[in-house]
Amino acid sequence: MSDGERPPSGKCSRRRFLKATAAVGAGLAVGPYVLGAGSAPSGEIRVGVIGAGTQGRVLIQNCLKIPGVRFAAVCDIWPWSQRYASRRLQAYQQTVNLYEDYREMLDKEKDLDAVIVATPDWVHAEHTIAALEAGKHVYCEKEMSNSLEQAREMVLAARRTGKLLQIGHQRRSNPRYRHAAEKLLDEAKLLGRVTAVYGQWNRAKQPDLGWPKDYELDQATLQKYGYASMHEFVNWRWFRKYGGGPIEDLGSHQIDIYNWFLGTPPKSVVASGGMDYYKGHEWYDNVMAIYEFETPAGVVRAFYQVQTTTSARGYFETFMGDEGTLQISEDPRKCRVYAEGSLAPDAWEEWAKKGYIVRMPLAEEETPARSEMDAIVSVYKSAPQVTWLLPVEVETSYHQPHLENFFGAIRDGTPLTCPAEVGYETAVTVLTVNQAVEAGRRVPFRVEDFRV
Questions:
Q1: What residues are paired with 99 via a beta bridge?
Q2: pLDDT category of residue 304 using cuts at 50, 70 and 90
Q3: Contact partners, residue 418, CB within 8 Å, separation at least 6
Q4: For residues 35 and 396, is the Cβ–Cβ distance under 8 A?
Q5: 155-192 pLDDT, tens digit each
Q6: Neighbours of 306 (CB within 10 A)
Q7: Closest Cα partner for 137 from 117, 107, 109?
Q8: pTM for this structure?
Q9: Quick one: three-class SS letters along 272-287?
Q10: What is the rounded CA–CA span in Å between residue 169 and residue 216?
């Protein structure tokens, strides 16, 4: 998972507008996804963490906002991460036992209900399967694994043990994304026939990560746990042994949405990429991929790019249909729905009355702060004539709804939004992009490729 701060939630005027106008009918749209709506647990859910690096600490912080969740143990091979996580938890009156070896943690912490796995991708399977076989439910960060064989073993372990396995594709639990999928696409069919998809995650250039020298791991410890150097340990995402590169680290979040919103995995992919900018890395610093999906309505071609040398236009996904376009993102400022100019002016009023969409205030449309897409489409005669907003405010961080779904499944039997089988399908879709770059040709998928 790429770590970053949550972007601003948008203009205050827009927030007040959405909250006021959504009262007409947004309860219907937002109600099923209200956070914390489940019943209170009869007892605490005791949690252990394997992997307390940057992403592990992000998940810990989000769990601290969820009632009835308490940490009992933290495991990490790096004392620096142990210290950081334990001090953070102590600030919330949660004292934890610290471990270097996950096997010792699982052996001694018999009363854990769940384990969060936030280690580098290459050991996800090892840690997840061990926790499942120890009788714990598991929340495993994405990517499920950088090896499809190991990802497959994770699915089988979840089935064999009967324990829950949630994969950390957090958009699957995001209220805004669920509203778009269930209300705008499935029910209202606002876009008509979807014909094309575009997505990107553009990230500004970054130096390799450093580390506090006082806490540097010695070479013997690094080798014991499979790392060649401290540099590779902290920058593992750039090395083939440990991860899948930016297309996996960043792209899998959004490519997962392609499969979800289109209701099917792809039929093929062709891709290009390279190590064109950074030195000393093993993975492509840029990738461009084109998927072909076969839907009941017809073929959909979906482009995706990940760039690590420019932040141009950030990250978002766009679904384009013959009656409308949906642009969606975890960044609320980028979320828009556009009606095609060929539609009658009142074509979407039915859905506006239901609270599924809210028309952008005219005053805001006319300000220089309009989105880039708003400005571009106004040039064309057939451009969308009305801009709409999604009346779904997400007041929490990105990860909290997904963690709440996981703990709700433990507590109340709520269905997981990203169980192991879904995570595996996404892993196949994403990891094959790197194969397509290496092969330099179109790579077809078979239906059985996505099944375990």
A1: 75
A2: very high
A3: 166, 167, 168, 169, 172, 173, 402
A4: yes
A5: 999 999 999 999 999 999 999 999 999 999 999 999 99
A6: 29
A7: 117
A8: 0.88
A9: EEECCCCCCCCCCCEE
A10: 31
